Structure to design on (252 residues):
């Protein structure tokens, strides 16, 4: 197993999928693009051809140096070597072919970002989880967080052969847009969501007794319709009503 496979890195080389990502991004000469994962720079070049400026971050040093040499002619490109989740960059459009191991971390990170649109390639199973409906097996804490904060749209399934090396699973190209102009969610919200989902199959009223005893959480107990539902049946909006006190507890 080479280093790239070990860390879940699969470089998208299919030019038709790259073009779809570029076209649905709405990149133009007034937009700044942030790319997490330069890879071999093929998609990077295409974004540079349409955008005002592109910031592209690559964690893998070997890929970074290859891209630096290959893309040195591009005047509207800034290459960065490092973890894309730790860069302080102002941008309009985000694009990334994320390592599958980073998917949940990505959604948590994205919840604190200001952006217009993200076009990302995710493992199909994780993408389906983000869009899962209440009561289904795939409906998780991360589904609640993503659906409350974002408008999510699937664009196309991507065959493993579109990547090098090919992953063992299919992927999806997804569009993610923020629902709110200026709302950030505390990490505590995701913590409590994961905790209450550990009581899947139980009534909310039963689950929150354990949460209050263990974590001193502020719970809104004024809505009997929510309290009498099963945990996995709550909508994202129901969860927010449950955990927010006057809508403020988990807002930064």
């Amino acid at each position: 197993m080479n280093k790239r496979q070990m860390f879940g890195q699969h470089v998208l080389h299919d030019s038709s999928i790259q073009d779809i990502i570029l076209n649905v991004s709405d990149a133009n000469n007034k937009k700044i693009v942030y790319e997490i994962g330069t890879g071999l720079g093929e998609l990077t070049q295409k974004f540079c051809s349409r955008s005002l400026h592109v910031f592209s971050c690559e964690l893998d040093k070997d890929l970074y140096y290859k891209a630096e040499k290959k893309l040195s002619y591009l005047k509207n490109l800034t290459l960065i070597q490092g973890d894309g989740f730790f860069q302080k960059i102002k941008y309009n459009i985000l694009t990334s072919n994320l390592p599958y191991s980073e998917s949940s971390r990505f959604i948590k990170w994205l919840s604190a970002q200001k952006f217009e649109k993200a076009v990302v390639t995710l493992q199909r199973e994780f993408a389906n989880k983000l869009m899962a409906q209440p009561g289904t097996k795939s409906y998780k804490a991360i589904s609640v967080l993503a659906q409350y904060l974002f408008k999510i749209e699937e664009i196309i399934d991507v065959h493993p052969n579109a990547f090098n090396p090919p992953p063992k699973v299919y992927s999806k190209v997804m569009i993610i847009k923020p629902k709110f102009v200026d709302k950030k969610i505390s990490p505590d919200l995701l913590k409590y969501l994961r905790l209450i989902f550990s009581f899947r199959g139980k009534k909310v009223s039963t689950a929150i007794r354990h949460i209050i005893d263990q974590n001193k959480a502020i719970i809104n107990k004024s809505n009997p319709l929510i309290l009498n539902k099963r945990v996995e049946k709550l909508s994202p909006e129901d969860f927010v009503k449950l955990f927010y006190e006057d809508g403020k507890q988990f807002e930064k």
Notes: The chain has a mean pLDDT of 88.
